[in-house]
Known about the structure:
The chain has about 450 residues and is an alpha/beta fold. It has three domains: about 25-95, Immunoglobulin-like, CATH 2.60.40.10; about 95-345, Rossmann fold, CATH 3.40.50.1110; about 360-450, no CATH class. The chain contains eleven helices and 23 strands. It has helices at about 105-110, 110-115, 120-125, 155-160, 165-180, 200-205, 205-215, 230-235, 255-275, 295-305, 335-345; strands spanning about 25-30, 30-40, 45-50, 55-60, 65-70, 80-85, 90-105, 130-135, 150-155, 180-190, 245-250, 280-285, 315, 360-365, 370-375, 380-385, 390-395, 400, 405-410, 410-415, 425, 435-440, 450. The strands form five sheets. Strands 1, 3, 4, 6, 7, 8, 9, 10, 11, 12 and 13 form an eleven-stranded mixed sheet that branches. β12 (about 280-285), α10 (about 295-305) and β13 form a beta-alpha-beta unit. It is elongated, with a radius of gyration of 24 Å. Residues about 1-10 have low confidence and may be disordered. Keywords: Hydrolase. Pfam families: SASA. GO terms for molecular function: sialate O-acetylesterase activity.
Amino acid sequence: MGMLLAAGSTSAGAVSLPAIIGNHMVLQRNAEVTIWGWGKTGEEITVTGSWDNKPVKVKTNNLAQWSVKLQTSGVSGPQTLTVKGYNTIVLEDVLLGEVWLCSGQSNMEWSANAGIDNAEKHVAEANYPSIRFFQVGHRTADAPQLDVQGQWVVCTPETMKHFSAIGYFFGREVHQNLKVPVGLINSSWGGTPAEVWLSANAISANPVLADAAAKRKEVEWGPVQSAKAYNAMIAPLIPFRLAGALWYQGESNTDAPEVYAQMLPALIRNWRTEWKNEFPFYFVQLAPYKYGGAEEWPRLAEAQLKTLSVPNTGMAVIHDVGNVDDIHPRNKLPVGQRLASLALNKTYGQKDVPASGPIYREMKKEGNKIRLYFDNAEQGLVAKGKELTQFEIAGEDQAFVPAQAKIDGKTVVVSAKGVKNPTAVRLGWSNAANPNLFNKAGLPASGFRTDNWTKKPNL
């Protein structure tokens, strides 16, 4: 068997499908999914999934486009999807499972073939017939496109080594835990700023984003203009039903972290609006790196931390597995695992799976000390090492000095001998930060600051 007519055929009057709908694909289980394509104007199209054998009919519109909605089930085992018009397409080896979009820049794109820790072992073990990959080819466009370059493939050592390592590790964890198929769509491009991944309307609707995007200077390794990647690499995937999205990006936006604090929430809203789906969006906080200036990393990481205020989001903190000398840290396994833990806990309801390290919540002044309170510290806090490191404290002069920090149950008490009237605390506030505060689940705390000072006062 096989596809009776190749998807995308240009035969006169032939019904055809976008690349994202093909053999070996994963459709979101137990959901209303959209199947769409092209045909001759007025052609009657019948779409039938073998999981329920309920045909759905539609006529191609005056733009030669058609779209139907099917209800999937939770059945296991390969299915077929039949699309019949003047010709018939039979898609085979279709699985029903969990579909996740992976996007961002080079760290999301990074494959085992590019070099990761224990690559040989991970590649050799990558025999998972129920995990499927769809790699979106690099393309740009001036307007939203209808199709992408790519095809669904089964996870094997050969296909895995060219796919997103973080995406694979995430998918493997979810698959092994839920015992269901997982489909992973990787639409990433190294060196790209976030601006290229939003629609033109989403950028132009926000003057801050529009102004920042207009100031981008061309680079040789990829697009920088608004919407260029969105148009060619995201828009054609809509409305393929997703369980959620994963995002690892920000290195190319460290020049304007205050803009990124608006950019990332805008991107999340943009994608959810276009998909008409408030899907979970889990992102990776950048690993520390020796950037040229003084505070690029902590300020960008802070912008990511603030994005947790957007509903149905989560952040994987990875400073403990990063490499300040390599903007592409090779220890990708824990990154994928932490993203998977977020999904298992928050999306799939496994509350026993630790989802996050400590996140600063509030501070209270106690004489010459400050007590810090954290979310995700229900079981307590730990220091990996003899003493807590990289805490700083300041008084009203806004001059931060190294502080003594001690764990007191679920809180941390911070002080310094020379600071009698403390007003603010920072943790891990440098480009090379790697603080050692963790929760009992072994997940690291995000760096933070309790102040919002931009410069020291005139004394």
